[in-house]
Amino acid sequence: MDLILLYVIGVVATTIGTLAGGGGFINLPTMLLLGMPIHSAIGANKVSNTVSSFSSFFTLYKRKQISFKDSYWIIPFSLIGGLTGGWIASLLSSKYLFIVAIVLLVLGFLTSFIGKDNFTGNKELTLNKVSGPGLYGIGIYDGLFGPGQGTLMLYLFSYLNVAYIKSVGLVRLATFSSCFGAAISYIASGVIIWPLTLALMAGSITGAQVGVRIAEKLNPRFVKPILRVITTILIVQLILENLVF
Are 155 and 100 in contact (CB under 8 A)? Predict the structure, then answer.
């Protein structure tokens, strides 16, 4: 029963996560309610996201919505960030992870009101003083905690005037990179519960494909309002969880 539930949660969470980020705030609490230790739950999230995010990126790449030539350079920033975050997470208690998440999501929410592009820009993502440190910092956050990483990255790409569907592809590539790095850390530490992790992974792969197809048809004008709603829900949920635990 737990395996079926995790598959369904993986589908729903990754569909939402592909569109606006925050999918981890659906599957992570579910795994905690099932009795998984928090580091095992985060590790399962990293392993499943590694596979599902690459599948959605590859789908957009095949459809020529994104070029690997223009985006490959984000891999080392996110990968090293994920490795760094995974290592730091092993040294911190869970309450500090929640605090970091709340602060960054509030900052992302406030940043969304800067500029009026609403993902209507069409600039290429280039390495500069904002994109490089931004990707590395979000990679660290992804390795540290994870849920909300996609939302923060969409805010970053919106600020850099990258088109929405291209942003989705870039987020999935960066997610693959940082989650791959973090997954290595969690696997090496021996905290992964494989049956539950594989069930979540199967659902996440399905959800990634559903999310990509919806994203291709979504009007960019609606993306920022959706992001703000998702971010508000995530912040409230984090605060409530922090009070409970």
Answer: no
